[in-house]
Design a protein that fits this description.
Elements lengths: L1 E7 L8 E7 L6 E11 L1 H7 L16 E8 L11 E4 L2 E3 L5 H4 L11 E2 L18 E5 L4 E2 L6 H4 L5 H11 L7 E5 L3 H12 L3 E6 L5 H7 L3 E4 L4 H5 L4 E6 L7 H5 L2 E9 L12 H4 L4 E4 L5 H14 L5 E4 L4 H9 L6 E5 L4
Parallel strand pairs: 10-11, 10-13, 11-12, 13-14, 14-15, 16-17
Antiparallel strand pairs: 1-2, 3-4, 3-8, 3-17, 4-5, 5-9, 6-7
Helix pairs in contact: 4-5, 4-10
Length: 346
């Protein structure tokens, strides 16, 4: 066991504060990582605020982790000391179910172990990346290519893979027309990745406030959803729409933007339920779908793809003492486009 510095929410909706947590001793298949950077995901805020259900406190958030290997277990074969590595939203799964065997550990039939706000196989609470170090089984660690700076790579461990996985699953590429709903931490990576895959990309945002940014990131078009003409002018245009927002949308209106057999994929996680007019599905054999992160192999594939195409997150680097301010700004959509904590400041 070792004691490491961290930032934690001591109770639901409470400001985060500096504390310490215990990390397990490095086992035979474990990797000890010095965390260098940790992204702030909107889901961190949802969980601290118990928006998705009861949490475990004190809670150390953070599942966009980039760092350096400083120790490996006696039977580790995948990593060596000094390598740049990342840890995303999960740190274990059953490894036996059909989904795990297919490389879909994120959908583990027996429940994957979340990087924080979870319980591991030994019954211990998991603590995330707002900390100095973390110990993770080598099978749930990914290699960050040397050409990707660790600070801009950290958000790829959630925001990057959350967009890459559905874009690949729904065969986005040359000849496909894709819309990304929302230009935030998730959406801005969706624009970059969809463009790199060869698709024609449109951003759908509430207003045109970030239009210049969206076009600079690679979008071919940028439309405001608060303008009713957007939904008439773009009717039937898209093969795939990926919604990244965490607020409930008028999904029936967005279904009207899809081509026949198109898919509206939700990766945002609103706390409220939605309603849908099913005639909007039946009339064009359309699909409303969901997707979350990716398996370990696909996450590695995503990192390699981003390195090949020079894709990193657009970040604001902050000190740990700015976490609570950053949480307020995220909820006000005042960030371009991901806060990343320099963990040397913890």
């Amino acid at each position: 066991m070792s004691t490491v510095a961290a930032y934690a929410a001591p109770a639901p909706k409470a400001p985060l504060e500096r504390t310490t947590v215990e990390r397990r001793a490095v086992g035979a298949h474990d990797v000890l990582i010095d965390i260098k950077y940790a992204g702030i995901c909107h889901s961190d805020i949802h969980q601290v605020n118990e928006g998705w259900g009861q949490g475990i406190f004190p809670m150390v958030p953070g599942h966009e982790i980039a760092g350096v290997v400083v120790e490996v277990g006696s039977e580790v074969t995948r990593f060596t000391v000094g390598e740049h590595v990342g840890v995303g939203c999960m740190v274990d799964s059953c490894r036996e179910c059909d989904y795990c065997l297919r490389g879909l550990e994120q959908y583990c039939a027996n429940g994957s172990t979340m990087t924080y706000n979870g319980i591991d196989r030994n019954g211990e609470v998991t603590y995330g990346g707002y900390s100095k170090q973390i110990v993770v089984d080598e099978n749930y660690v990914v290699r960050i290519p040397d050409s990707l700076p660790l600070d801009v790579a950290a958000p790829l461990l959630c925001a990057g893979i959350t967009l890459y996985s559905p874009l690949k699953h729904w065969n986005v590429g040359p000849g496909k027309k894709v819309a990304i709903v929302g230009l935030g931490g998730l959406g801005h990576m969706g624009v970059k990745i969809a463009r790199a895959l060869g698709a024609e990309v449109t951003v759908l945002s509430q207003s045109l406030r970030k239009k210049d940014d969206g076009l600079a990131l690679g979008a071919h078009d940028y439309r405001a959803t608060n303008d009713p003409s957007t939904f008439s002018e773009l009717a039937g245009k898209f093969d795939v729409i990926v919604s990244t927002v965490s607020a409930p949308l008028d999904f029936s209106a967005y279904l009207g933007l899809l081509k026949t057999e198109g898919a509206l994929v939700n990766v945002g996680a609103p706390e409220e339920p939605i309603s849908v007019n099913l005639f909007g599905l039946i009339g064009g054999r359309k699909t409303i779908a969901g997707s979350m992160i990716g398996g370990i192999a696909e996450t590695q594939e995503m990192l390699d793809f981003c390195a090949e195409h020079g894709l990193g997150a657009e970040i604001e680097l902050i000190g740990a003492d700015q976490i609570n301010v950053a949480y307020d700004r995220v909820q006000s959509s005042d960030v371009r486009y991901r806060f990343v904590i320099d963990t040397a400041t913890i």
